[in-house]
Amino acid sequence: MRLQIIVIILLTAGWTLGACTSAARNERASFDRYDDERLAALSKALKELPEAVGDQESAPEGLGGTLDLNQLVRQAEARSPKLAGAYEKWRGAVAGITVATALPDATFSYTEFIRSIETRLGPIERRFMLQQKVPNPGKLIAREEQAAGQASAMKANFEATRLGLRESLVVAYVDLQALDARLEILRQLAATLRSMEEVIEARVTANLAPQSALLRVQVEAERLESDAETLEKRRPSLAATLTAIIGTRISPQARAEALPLSTRTQLPDEAK
What we know:
By secondary structure, this protein is mainly α. It has helices spanning 2-22, 25-52, 69-79, 81-100, 137-205, 211-232, 235-246; strands spanning 66-67, 107-119, 122-131, 255-256.
């Protein structure tokens, strides 16, 4: 009868402990899924580094040419110390779920008697004892819920850190993209005015147009070209901002992908 009671107690304790760990299954599964995605992204980012950056002697300027935003996101997430710190906190909180629901360490004791002790089963000269404390199942469940809540909070902190990193990167990338778009517009307008300048100059030579018309076109073309040169000087600053966010050197001559044009228009023949 006593043996049956012990077996029932052990089975109940085992079932309770199993139920405790099932409450945190979603947190563990969520972390495992992201961990697999993170390893794949890190692997891809590392493969891109030799082609994009290389060693300092062969590519001292860093990433250059036309920058790909998705590649920059991978590089930033792979190199950001702040994001790595948030990830380690999340991983530690998930590991803490197992620690919170773990049984205390078992204790083993050995006793050697100076003289034998007589019992019903005979004399006893030494004694071995193995003890395992089983906490109250209710306390284990409470610990598990608290640890799971901490893991959920660290996951939210990690997601917020990652979104903040991506937001900063996208804003800096869009600034560079807008700079390229404005430069393209200014240069196209200046080129158009220079073409008009040749036509007006010929008309002035033939006394078909006043000199003031030629001067206006020349002044406007020079103003547009000067504005383009001033804008171009902002490129190193934008590249430095991207470098600080990503952790990988960005060339001062790097460019963003061109903005898509919804419609293409051409000047009418009368305006050429």
